[in-house]
């Protein structure tokens, strides 16, 4: 028995030698299939596997003159085991790689060999904000099957034969149950979303916590039908798209994380769009939400492009121009193969686009002037150069092309900003008794409620709506805001020093001379600000735990009061809420180019604007070094 087994083993070894077989993979895979990633900027063009190494060729597609950086500890993962990088060519780990004018760069990384049995690997870094690529096929045979195998069958198709669903005018809580398919926990556990409503874009308190199985749930108070926009996971993994929601419903939403891999491979092939649907739901608007992905509508009125209209036109000439563009867009829709529902959506879209282009004629003219003349955007436009002016009568002439100016389904238009949610002065003047004019008034009152700035006239106006929904929504919003204020600890907001605006910043930081002061200019609606807060806050109990650091946060009154009061207790530091003139003085002094914006004040009271500290690793390094200076 022993001899038989011995010779049997020799035979197997001999046969393996004859076959040239190895326990390691020996093959080359060009442009491997990728499931998902934390970025679409990084692609893999080739993987070469031998019994001595695994060589991965990468391509970066990013903005020219920007830089990327690879962590020093970089690995591939195969069957749960990590294989750390041995060498790199074309990039130096830990140092910046500057992107050339072409917008593309290439580098090669070498890892140890991987077993022949491995079919998929993952790529990653050990860093604060790592590049991660998951589900990299190393067989050369894998493709992505759509729809996803775990998607309920009833969600895999939708008919576009029915009518476009109506906007729901009600106030109620909607429950959104999210299920991420092909999800890996390392991609992130916070699904970032924003909500487009009839009055504003809500960005506050809309993160959805995701568990290790890729599931999460959120209750959202909706004021009428609203559009929930997915922004991504933890500010990294770019899961994007949107769905319409109705007040009072419970909706299951399935998101296919392979969207990211498909985007990477589309860019690899020179395609701008991918053809698959990645978001599915079972709510009132499920058919519309699905068809938006599979039957995308071109944006006909690109009035922000600078190539729309002509700044030298008169109002009458601009009206005729808009009518001509509108007719051509309608004719284009008629010639498409869109389903009946999506043709209706497209028509709503161009009607809303035309009204927006009429309402926002000043922006159209100014943008066209700078693009056409090539003038410096910081240069003042010469007096009399802009001829374009629109009157209420001009606006009426444009609006006469719209089928029903009182149709609030225009709110559900695709891809445009509606005139009655962005100012709407001309709209209200042209149609003072319309729902459109009421929507303008509704928006202004809702914003005043958010800022807790209603006056006596406003309170009287709340009862004057002919559409009951507007009154109901405002009264509910008042109730929500007052509950938040009543339950908030107002002492967490510091009193603003009573000094001239140009002296305000110095008055805020003066009491802390002798310490290092980090001033963060932010607002609740700023998604990058909140991402940075999520990164920086844990550091206060870690590497940046020091009594020598004073944290000061300055927001302005564009941050809705309820959202502001809910957020700041979780942000350790001193909080100031300033008015428009005060924040302008601070921004002018430090040449603020956007938020978040950081101002570093040393122990001697010298203040310097540091927009470069948006880089989290530099933020930490700089503060640690500054504290070390005694």
Rounded mean pLDDT is 89
Number of strands: 26
> Given the structure, what is the number of helices?
16
Low-confidence spans: 1-20
> Radius of gyration in whole Å, from Cα?
29 Å
Strand content range: 15-25%
Q: Helix share of residues? A: 25-40%
Kindly describe this structure.
The protein is α+β, with helices and mostly antiparallel strands and 630 residues long. The strands form 6 sheets. The protein has a 5-stranded antiparallel beta sheet. The chain has a 5-stranded antiparallel beta sheet with strand order 2-12-11-6-7. The longest helix is centred in the middle third of the chain and has 21 residues, at 315-335. It is globular, with a radius of gyration of 29 Å. The model is unreliable at 1-20 (pLDDT under 50).
Ordered list of secondary-structure elements with their pairings:
Blueprint: H1 2-19, E1 27-30, E2 36-37, E3 42-49, E4 54-61, E5 67-69, E6 74-78, E7 81-84, E8 87-89, E9 96-98, E10 104-111, E11 120-125, E12 133-137, E13 171-181, E14 190-196, E15 201-202, E16 208-209, E17 215-223, E18 226-233, E19 241-245, E20 250-256, H2 259-268, E21 279-281, H3 286-294, H4 315-335, H5 340-359, H6 361-373, H7 392-399, H8 425-430, H9 435-450, H10 456-461, H11 468-487, H12 504-509, E22 516-521, H13 527-536, E23 549-556, H14 561-567, E24 574-578, H15 580-590, E25 597-601, E26 607-609, H16 616-628
Parallel strand pairs: 13-20, 22-23, 23-24
Antiparallel strand pairs: 1-3, 2-12, 3-4, 4-10, 5-9, 6-7, 6-11, 8-10, 11-12, 13-17, 14-15, 14-16, 14-18, 18-19, 20-21, 22-25, 25-26
Helix pairs in contact: 4-5, 4-7, 5-7, 9-11, 11-14
């Amino acid at each position: 028995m022993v001899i038989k087994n011995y010779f049997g083993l020799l035979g197997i070894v001999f046969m393996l030698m004859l076959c040239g077989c190895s326990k390691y993979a020996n093959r080359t895979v060009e442009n491997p299939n990728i499931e998902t990633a934390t970025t679409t900027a990084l692609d893999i063009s080739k993987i070469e596997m031998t019994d001595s190494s695994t060589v991965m060729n990468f391509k970066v597609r990013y903005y020219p003159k920007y830089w990327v950086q690879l962590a020093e500890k970089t690995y591939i993962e195969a069957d749960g085991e990590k294989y750390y990088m041995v060498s790199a060519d074309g990039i130096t780990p830990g140092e910046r790689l500057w992107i050339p004018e072409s917008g593309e760069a290439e580098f090669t990384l070498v890892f140890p060999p991987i077993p022949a049995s491995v079919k998929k690997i993952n790529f990653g870094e050990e860093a604060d904000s790592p590049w991660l690529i998951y589900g990299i096929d190393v067989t050369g045979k894998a493709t992505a099957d759509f729809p996803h195998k775990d998607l309920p069958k009833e969600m895999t198709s939708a008919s576009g034969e029915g009518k476009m669903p109506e906007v729901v005018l009600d106030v109620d809580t909607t429950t959104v149950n999210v299920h991420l398919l092909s999800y890996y926990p390392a991609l992130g556990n916070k699904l970032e979303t924003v909500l487009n409503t009839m009055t504003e874009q809500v960005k506050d308190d809309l993160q959805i916590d995701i568990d290790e199985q890729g599931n999460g749930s959120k209750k959202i108070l909706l004021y009428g039908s609203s559009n929930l926009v997915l922004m991504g996971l933890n500010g990294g993994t770019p899961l994007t798209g949107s769905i319409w929601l109705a007040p009072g419903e419970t909706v299951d939403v399935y998101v296919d994380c392979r969207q990211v891999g498909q985007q990477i491979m589309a860019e690899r092939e020179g395609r701008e769009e991918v053809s698959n649907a990645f978001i599915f739901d079972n709510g009132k608007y499920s058919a519309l939400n699905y068809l938006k992905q599979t039957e995308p509508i071109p944006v006909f009125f690109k009035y922000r492009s600078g190539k729309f209209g002509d700044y030298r036109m008169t109002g009458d000439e601009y009206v005729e121009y808009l009518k001509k563009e509108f007719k051509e867009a309608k004719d284009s829709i008629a010639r498409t193969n869109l389903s009946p529902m999506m043709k209706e959506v497209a028509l709503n879209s161009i009607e809303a686009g035309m009204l927006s282009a009429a309402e926002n004629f000043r922006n159209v003219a100014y943008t066209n002037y700078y693009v056409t003349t090539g003038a410096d955007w910081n240069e003042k436009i010469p007096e009399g150069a802009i001829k374009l002016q629109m009157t209420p009568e001009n606006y009426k002439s444009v609006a006469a092309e719209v089928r029903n100016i009182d149709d609030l389904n225009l709110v559900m238009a695709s891809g445009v900003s509606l005139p009655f949610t962005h100012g709407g002065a001309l709209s209200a003047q042209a149609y003072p008794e319309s729902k459109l004019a009421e929507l303008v008034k509704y928006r202004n009152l809702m914003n005043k409620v958010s800022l807790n700035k209603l006056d006596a006239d406003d309170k009287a106006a709340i009862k004057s709506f002919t559409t009951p929904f507007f009154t109901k929504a405002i009264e509910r919003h008042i109730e929500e805001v007052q509950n938040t204020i009543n339950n908030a600890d107002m002492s967490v907001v510091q009193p603003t020093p009573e000094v001239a605006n140009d002296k305000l910043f110095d008055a805020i930081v003066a009491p802390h001379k002798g310490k290092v002061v980090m001033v963060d200019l932010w607002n609740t609606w700023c998604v990058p600000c909140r991402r940075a807060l999520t990164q920086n806050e844990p550091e206060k109990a870690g590497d940046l735990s020091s009594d020598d650091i004073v944290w000061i946060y300055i927001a302005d009154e564009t941050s809705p009061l309820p959202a502001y009061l809910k957020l700041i207790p979780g942000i350790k530091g001193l909080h100031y809420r300033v008015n428009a003139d005060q924040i302008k003085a601070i921004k002018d002094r430090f040449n603020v180019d956007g938020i978040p914006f950081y101002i570093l004040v040393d122990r001697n009271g010298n203040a310097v604007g540091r927009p470069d500290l948006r880089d989290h690793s530099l933020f930490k390094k700089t503060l640690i070094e500054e504290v070390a200076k005694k």
